[in-house]
Amino acid sequence: MGVMKYFSFVLVVVMVLSVTHAQASKKKNWCSETVPYKMGMEKMTKLHFYFHDNITGDYPTTFKIAEAPGVSNTSSTFFGELYMADDPLTVGPDPNSRLVGRAQGFFGFSAQKDLSLIMGISIVFTGNKKLNGSTISIFTRNPIANTDREFSIVGGTGYFKLARGFVTAKTYWASGKNAIVEYTCNIVHY
Ligand SMILES: *[C@@H]1O[C@H](CO)[C@@H](O)[C@H](O)[C@H]1NC(C)=O
Ligand SMILES: *[C@@H]1O[C@H](CO)[C@@H](O)[C@H](O)[C@H]1NC(C)=O
Ligand SMILES: *[C@@H]1O[C@H](CO)[C@@H](O)[C@H](O)[C@H]1NC(C)=O
């Protein structure tokens, strides 16, 4: 009897494995059908904080990572200079006030005739339990010579999934390439 029983056990195992394999092959259908989708109710959250961008000084948080050789160093608008930033965001204009998050990403001088940046940053919030770890993505033109500016919010994660909206930004203080900017975020999300 032993041999027969062993043989049918092996057969069952082989059958189970081939069914599993067939299911795995079906999963190779990597694109789902497109079906109607209803978003939940739109909500608006407003956030207000100060962004500290130091390129020089004792504790810089923004560093030049590239430039256009032979162009950026003769350009009156720093055209082609690219920076990577990990800037603190605080509740008040004082850099020692409570930290609410960080702005991480890059910005580059993108205009030959004006002082203007292209800015792609992700803001991660850490200031309270509700928003902890959630992000908003900003991709925008930033004409830094104007005191008042508007940035576009193009997405988000966590609490701010599917976010869009805008930031009204106002230069609070600037010295050379260091600045404190007041951010008021108007975030529409679900
Ligand atoms: C700019 O950089 C180039 C090399 O990339 C150098 O030849 C030139 O002298 C520099 N010009 C100035 C004004 O520093
Ligand atoms: C940025 O630099 C200024 C001096 O230019 C300094 O007073 C300030 O504390 C620095 N900010 C941060 C966040 O380190
Ligand atoms: C945010 O999350 C981190 C890591 O998950 C945790 O260490 C921290 O205490 C949290 N902060 C708040 C304010 O909830």
UniProtKB/TrEMBL annotation:
Superkingdom in the source lineage: Eukaryota
Biological process according to GO: phenylpropanoid biosynthetic process
Alphabetized UniProt keyword annotations: Apoplast, Secreted, Signal
Subcellular location: Secreted, Extracellular space, Apoplast
Stored Gene3D superfamilies: Allene oxide cyclase-like (2.40.480.10)
Signal peptide boundaries: 1-22
Pfam families: Dirigent
Gene Ontology cellular component terms for the protein in this record: apoplast
Function: Dirigent proteins impart stereoselectivity on the phenoxy radical-coupling reaction, yielding optically active lignans from two molecules of coniferyl alcohol in the biosynthesis of lignans, flavonolignans, and alkaloids and thus plays a central role in plant secondary metabolism.
Subunit structure: Homodimer.
Family designation: Belongs to the plant dirigent protein family.
UniProt-recorded name of the protein: Dirigent protein
